[in-house]
Design a protein that fits this description.
Oligomer: single chain
Number of helices: 15
Shape: globular
Bound molecules: flavin-adenine dinucleotide
Strand content: 15-25%
Largest sheet: 7 strands, mixed
Radius of gyration: 22 Å
Distance between the termini: 6 Å
CATH architecture of one domain: 3-Layer(bba) Sandwich
Number of strands: 19
Helix content: 25-40%
CATH superfamily of one domain: FAD/NAD(P)-binding domain
């Protein structure tokens, strides 16, 4: 009989691991808390509209391709490259910046505010590119077995990058650009890591290279949830069963071996190997009762911000919008320094709007538009009361309406709001922190919660809060790394 693996959680990390392990001959069963797969990469269907719930684009598309090749399956979904990558508008300005990958076209956008933009951007991206290529295989795409192993790997990174370790993302961008427009737009990508450019290390400027030069950003034909539909369909072909509405709340063990996981109804599931896709720190705390992950320890860790997301169906089209649109204010530094910790920041929020129906007509009824808003907000550590959510959402919709010169509130047919409370409850995210643990020096690489359990030798972790970190390509790399651990230790039979 083939060895049995239980995967707790059917997020992207869990599903991708399930596929590779099933292909390698393991007998895989998945247990998912919610009624559908996908975790944060989810879909909401309501009143004739379809919305992507979390991620709306991704970088490093080749990571998906390589992983599918490893699994021996054809890509089960189709990418669409974005051009422009996104658009940015500052409050009080009629101008909208379109962020093209073509540097000449991009430079033309900044011609009136940043002289020699093209040369400056070339120089900036050259550095970011070198940083990317000198670190990605050494630090991101590999497992570490000890601090020594990790430090030894870091020591092989080209020392030319050492000075950047002392800078924040913001300081680094400031040393290349002078205008507030260029500085703010180029540093926006730090928000994609769930913190701000002011508290994100400059080493993450490698993300600028991934967005503008290396591979760009991608969307998925038919909506992002087709990634999940594709994976679930491939898993079905491999006879992997996914039990929905099944939340693991307890475990049973014998010495250093986990034997069973138990769901909310007391149903027990046994296996030879367990792979946990629930947040790697939260599961160790809540379910494993691991003494290294007590409530006090979790509270001392650094978590990413929360997200206020809302999904709006309009009975009209908004032809002047792009697929991805950012709306910024006029107090970037003050806003960024406050947004993680100060609920008052929300009086003048910054936000992002995704128009999923722009390229996917099926996502909205004819003549209608499907909008998905994301607003960075303090997580529940800093704002526990969300009784003001309707006021905040309406103030954003009013601001949006003014900025695009269209009526909006009057045209809303359907509206669904997720505050960090919903994000926490739905996906067991610590205090509703959208991306899990932050990526500060002491929480990355070997110092991130490991993908092997401290006590149970047959238990592994995959996903955003274990190595290497948050984001869709990282979830796939995480699956690759977790499977490498399992395949290195167990045979399928
Ligand atoms: C609003 C938002 C926007 C984002 N935008 C982007 C983007 O544009 N591009 C990008 O690359 N990334 C984006 N991300 C990040 C990306 O969504 C995540 O990094 C990635 O989806 C995480 O996948 P995962 O497998 O680690 O975990 P999850 O998606 O959290 O999956 C974990 C699964 O485990 C289940 N689970 C939890 N606990 C239990 C339990 N006890 N028992 C059973 N099941 C359990 C959960 O229900 C969930 O299905 C965004 C995230 C958010 C919140």
């Amino acid at each position: 009989m083939n060895k049995k693996i239980i995967i707790v959680g059917a997020g992207l990390g869990g599903l991708a691991s399930g596929l590779l392990l099933a292909k390698k001959g393991f007998d895989v069963t998945m247990l998912e808390k919610n009624a559908q797969a996908g975790g944060r990469l989810n879909q909401l269907k309501k009143d004739g509209f379809t919305f992507d719930v979390g991620p709306s684009f991704f970088s490093m598309s080749y990571i998906f391709r390589e992983f599918m090749e490893k699994c021996g399956v054809e890509m089960p979904f189709r990418f669409v490259e974005l051009d422009p990558l996104y658009s940015v508008n500052f409050r009080g300005s009629d101008k909208t910046y379109h962020l093209y990958k073509d540097l000449k076209k991009l430079a033309a956008q900044f011609a009136d505010v940043e002289p020699d933009f093209e040369q400056k951007m070339e120089k900036y991206l050259k550095k970011s590119g070198k940083l990317f290529h000198d670190t990605v295989d050494i630090v991101i795409r590999r497992n570490f077995n000890s601090v020594f192993d990790y430090i030894t790997a870091l020591m092989t990174v080209n020392p030319v990058h050492l000075p950047i370790l002392l800078k924040t993302f913001w300081q680094h961008v400031n040393s290349h650009f002078e205008s507030k427009e260029a500085r703010q737009i180029i540093s926006l990508v730090a928000f994609f890591l769930g913190r701000t450019p002011f508290d994100t290390m400059a080493i993450y400027s490698l993300l600028s290279y991934t967005e503008f030069k290396h591979d760009g950003y991608y969307n998925v034909e038919g909506g992002m949830y087709n990634i999940i539909n594709g994976l679930v369909s491939e898993l079905g072909k491999m006879n992997v069963s996914i039990h929905y509405n099944t939340e693991i709340v307890e475990v049973m063990s014998d010495g250093n071996k986990l034997q069973k996981v138990i769901d909310q109804n007391g149903q027990a599931y046994s296996a030879d190997i367990f792979l946990i896709n629930s947040d790697a720190a939260v599961f160790r705390n809540k379910v494993m009762k691991n003494p290294r992950f007590t409530d006090e320890k979790l509270a001392k860790m650094e978590w990413t911000m929360g997200y206020l997301t809302f999904y709006v169906g309009l009975n009209k089209k908004l032809p002047n919008l792009n697929l991805h649109n950012y709306y910024l204010g006029t107090n970037y530094e003050e806003y960024a320094n406050d947004v993680l910790v100060n609920p008052d920041t929300l009086q003048k929020p910054y936000y992002y709007v995704n128009v999923v129906s722009k390229h996917n007509a099926d996502c909205a009824p004819e003549g209608c538009e499907s909008l998905f808003f994301v607003c960075p907000v303090p997580n529940l550590q800093y704002k526990a009361d969300w009784s003001d959510k309707d006021d905040i959402v309406n103030s954003i919709l009013r601001d949006f309406s003014e900025r695009i010169g269209e009526t909006v509130i009057e045209n809303v047919i359907t509206k669904t709001i997720f505050t960090p409370q919903e994000w926490e409850k739905k996906f067991n995210l610590y205090k509703g922190s959208g991306l899990g643990l932050s990526h500060k020096m002491s929480q990355i690489g070997y110092f991130r919660p490991h993908n092997v359990d401290e006590k149970f030798k047959n238990t592994f972790y995959v996903g955003a809060s274990t190595a290497p970190g948050a984001g869709l390509p990282m979830a796939i790399i995480s699956a690759d790394l977790a499977c490498e651990r399992i395949l290195g230790k167990f045979n399928a039979t």
